[in-house]
């Protein structure tokens, strides 16, 4: 949908993004230099990530409408109401695409072949008259031959063919369908299920030795009903009712993240490497509370102990259970912090270059602890974004990031920033603008960072950004 609003002065003003679809003089007086035309690239191999972005002129909203990451994570935002002047990114909801959906998307991108269709575009001569309406320009960003490429559907610098416009429409409608009508993978027959994965329901109990009784710590049903022990000091009376339990419904995103984590841990495979403890082996004499995790595997319920006496487990097995336990604690803490702003992962720091400067992701920290960072000082022989390096953070490192995010409260500091008027004079140097994607109470928000032309950075906000940068730099070594 394209939002329009008539200009009172008849002058086009670009906001939020320095749009390459506007005349070169429209971007706050910046000298943009040589900019490649949108969509002018060779036909080739199409890949993810993919974004569908709405870029508003005249201070109209600019935001990410759809995003499909390379791992199949699909995020979408609700379209702002017509006439809305809200300039922040609407909250994104996310889910994991099925293999069927991912394959259909890749097949569609290959069939549409936008790069080939874009070769027939006609360039609008500079200085040509333009309509005075304020547009919301739709832009698709995806990989073509490994390079991020932009294709606009209604910009001002190119005249597109009917075939190109129809292809953009088909891509948008496909993404609409992913949002409104998810397609799960077909269920395989039992004969082709040799490796059954762990799934909900999930139950975590503390089983006390020496007649200390059993206590329910967490329970998640397949529909997302979540029960948890809210009082860590609650006493257990053997045979009596348990006190301190609370119940809430997980959001669709929380349920999807937990389901994916349970499947990714592969506990059954890890436990196969555990060694049984001989019956006559000496044991410590303390009374333990043994933590047991019960999951469904196929048609069976299987139990995985963290600290029992019958097996010697591998470090990988123990770390997997600790990771699951930490995730459940986060879900419980989120409920305990209703009314508060709770910062969690994922976290992403992007760099957006003006005037042809490189745009890339500087840091990408996913909810499962996967951490990727750009090697900005690496010497390369080809143009393009810097190479990247990845590793998985430990539970302690993940906790340190979340602790810093909650102590600095970046979103609150950002919302207190003073906005720079759209007609304020700007310096003409080409900047690299930092933009952060943070997760607050389970929702994704976009914050402007260093280099922003839209806000005056406060001392407190600058200090918080510096602390986060220092921590991420240490983790990237």
Unreliable sequence segments: 1-42, 187-194
Instruction: Report Rg.
Output: 26 Å
Strand arrangement, major sheet: 5-4-3-2-8-9
Summarize the amount of helix as a percent range: 10-25%
The count of domains is: 3
Q: What best-fitting shape do the alpha-carbon axes yield? A: elongated
Terminal-residue CA separation: 45 Å
For the largest beta-sheet, the strand count, sense and barrel status come to: 6 strands, antiparallel
Q: What is the number of helical segments per DSSP (H or I, 4+ residues)? A: 9
| β-sheet strand percentage | 25-35%
* Helical/strand content category: alpha+beta
How does this structure look, described?
There is one protein chain. This protein has nine helices and 26 strands. The chain is α+β, with helices and mostly antiparallel strands and 477 residues long. The protein folds into three domains: 1-185, no CATH class; 195-336, Mago nashi (Mago nashi protein); 340-477, 2-Layer Sandwich (Mago nashi protein). It has a six-stranded antiparallel beta sheet with strand order 5-4-3-2-8-9. The protein has a six-stranded antiparallel beta sheet with strand order 14-13-12-11-16-17. Helix 1 (99-112) packs antiparallel against helix 3 (162-180), helix 4 (252-265) packs antiparallel against helix 6 and helix 7 runs antiparallel to helix 9. Mean pLDDT is 82; it is low at 1-42 and 187-194.
């Amino acid at each position: 949908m394209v939002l329009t609003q008539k200009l009172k002065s008849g002058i086009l003003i670009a906001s939020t993004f320095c749009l390459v679809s506007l005349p070169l003089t429209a971007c706050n007086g910046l000298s943009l230099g040589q900019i490649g035309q949108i969509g002018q690239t060779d036909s080739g191999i199409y890949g993810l990530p993919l974004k569908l972005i709405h870029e508003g002129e005249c201070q109209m909203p600019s935001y990410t409408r759809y995003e499909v990451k390379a791992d199949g994570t699909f995020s979408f935002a609700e379209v702002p109401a017509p006439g809305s002047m809200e300039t922040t990114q609407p909250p994104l909801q996310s889910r994991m695409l099925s293999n069927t959906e991912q394959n259909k998307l890749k097949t569609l991108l290959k069939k549409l072949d936008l790069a080939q269709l874009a070769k027939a575009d006609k360039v609008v001569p500079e200085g040509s008259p333009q309509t005075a309406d304020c547009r919301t320009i739709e832009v698709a960003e995806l990989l073509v031959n490994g390079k991020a490429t932009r294709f606009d559907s209604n910009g001002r610098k190119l005249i597109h063919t009917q075939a190109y416009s129809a292809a953009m429409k088909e891509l948008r409608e496909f993404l609409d369908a992913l949002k409104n009508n998810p397609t799960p993978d077909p269920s395989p027959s039992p004969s082709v299920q040799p490796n059954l994965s762990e799934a909900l329901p999930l139950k975590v109990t503390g089983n006390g030795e020496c007649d200390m009784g059993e206590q329910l710590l967490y329970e998640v049903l397949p529909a997302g009903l979540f029960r948890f022990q809210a009082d860590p000091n609650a006493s257990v009376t053997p045979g009596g009712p348990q006190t301190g339990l609370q119940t809430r419904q997980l959001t669709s995103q929380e349920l999807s993240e937990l389901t994916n984590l349970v499947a990714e841990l592969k506990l059954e495979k890890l436990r196969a490497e555990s060694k049984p403890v001989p019956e006559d082996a000496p044991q410590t004499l303390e009374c333990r509370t043994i933590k047991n995790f019960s999951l469904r595997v196929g048609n069976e319920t299987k139990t995985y102990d963290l600290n029992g006496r019958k097996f010697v487990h591998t470090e990988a097995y123990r770390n997997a259970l600790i990771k699951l336990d930490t995730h459940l604690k986060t879900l419980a803490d989120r409920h305990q912090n209703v009314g508060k702003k709770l910062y969690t992962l994922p976290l992403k720091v992007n760099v957006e270059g003006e005037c042809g400067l490189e745009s890339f992701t500087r840091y990408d920290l996913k909810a499962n602890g996967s951490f990727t960072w750009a090697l900005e000082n690496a010497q390369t022989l080809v143009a393009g974004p810097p190479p990247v390096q990845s590793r998985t953070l430990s539970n302690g490192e993940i906790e340190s990031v979340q602790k810093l995010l909650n102590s600095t409260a970046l979103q609150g500091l950002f919302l207190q920033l003073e906005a720079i008027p759209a007609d304020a004079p700007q310096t003409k140097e080409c900047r690299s603008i930092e933009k952060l994607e943070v997760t607050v109470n389970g929702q994704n928000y976009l914050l402007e960072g260093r280099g922003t032309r839209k806000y005056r950075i406060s001392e407190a906000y600058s200090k918080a950004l510096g602390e986060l940068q220092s921590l991420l730099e240490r983790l990237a070594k």
